[in-house]
Amino acid sequence: MVVDGSKVVRRLIEQVLKTDLPGVTVLACETGAEAKQQLEAGVVDFVTTALRLPDMDGLELAQYIREHAPQAYIPIVVVSGDVQERLVARTLSDAVTDYFDKSLGFAALAAFIRGYVRPESNVTGEVLYVEDSRVVALATRRMMEKHGLTVLHVVSVEDALALLDTAKAQGKVPGADIVLTDVNLKGELTGGDLLERIRNDFGYGKAQLPVLVMTGDDNPKNQAVLIRQGANDLVEKPIEERLLITKLLFQLRVGQHSRALQTEAV
């Protein structure tokens, strides 16, 4: 289901989905009210919605779907040009599975949706995982490896930076497909320091090297600081496997897609 007030956007998303997913049925809705009617008429596998709809907020629609959809869990993704603003303000609803920035392009969106409705059995990607708790690291590593990801585990920011430095010296930029880090770690440096080094010293942007930050701090102001420092997204502790993997795979695809475009442009 594609919900967007713009006929042009609805048509664009529908076209790329039908090209990328032969046989897919796309339910295009202009308003939240239309989307509600379609939900009553039958089951849908995936929902994309704009943040701003003609008759309601997209997050309001997401909450409605969570409360009324017959399935236990439907992935709901916000597709918009201003998700970063809401992400920084921490005003994205828990009802939303994830967000997608329009600037990444509709082809990337189609690939992302395909990963949900027709998941690949051979997901590949290298995660640089920074966690100093042996117990937490073991459990979380198993979650990631179960889904086909390769995990490079280090216990400190200093170790992570050394690994990134070595990769850069060997021409293996950026050194991993994605970084998953805790905030508070052994050593003098924190997860926030790692973000600052990756974004400023190495110069790796959010699309080139996505970074997910795990935090037990539910204070919106502190979370907003991490986003401004360069985190792509946050994963709150205690870690819930489905949410962690969903966020990881999404950001992983974003990074891989961005690097593929850069390679084509060279």
Brief characterization of the structure:
With 266 residues, the protein is α/β, with parallel strands linked by helices. It is built from ten helices and ten strands.
What's the topology here?
Blueprint: E1 2-3, H1 7-20, E2 28-29, H2 32-41, E3 47-49, H3 58-68, E4 76-80, H4 83-89, E5 98-101, H5 106-117, E6 126-130, H6 134-146, E7 150-154, H7 157-169, E8 178-182, H8 191-201, E9 211-215, H9 220-229, E10 233-236, H10 241-265
Parallel strand pairs: 1-2, 1-3, 3-4, 4-5, 6-7, 6-8, 8-9, 9-10
Helix pairs in contact: 1-5, 2-3
Features:
single chain; 266 residues; alpha/beta; 2 domains; 10 helices
Give the percentage of residues in beta strands: 15-25%
- Give the neighbour order of strands across the main sheet: 2-1-3-4-5
- The CATH homologous superfamily of the largest domain is named Response regulator
Order of helices and strands: EHEHEHEHEHEHEHEHEHEH
Structural class: alpha/beta
For the CA atoms, what is the radius of gyration? 19 Å
Helix share bin: 40-55%
Straight-line N-to-C gap: 36 Å
Mean pLDDT rating: 86
- The count of DSSP E runs of length 2 or more, i.e. the number of strands, is 10
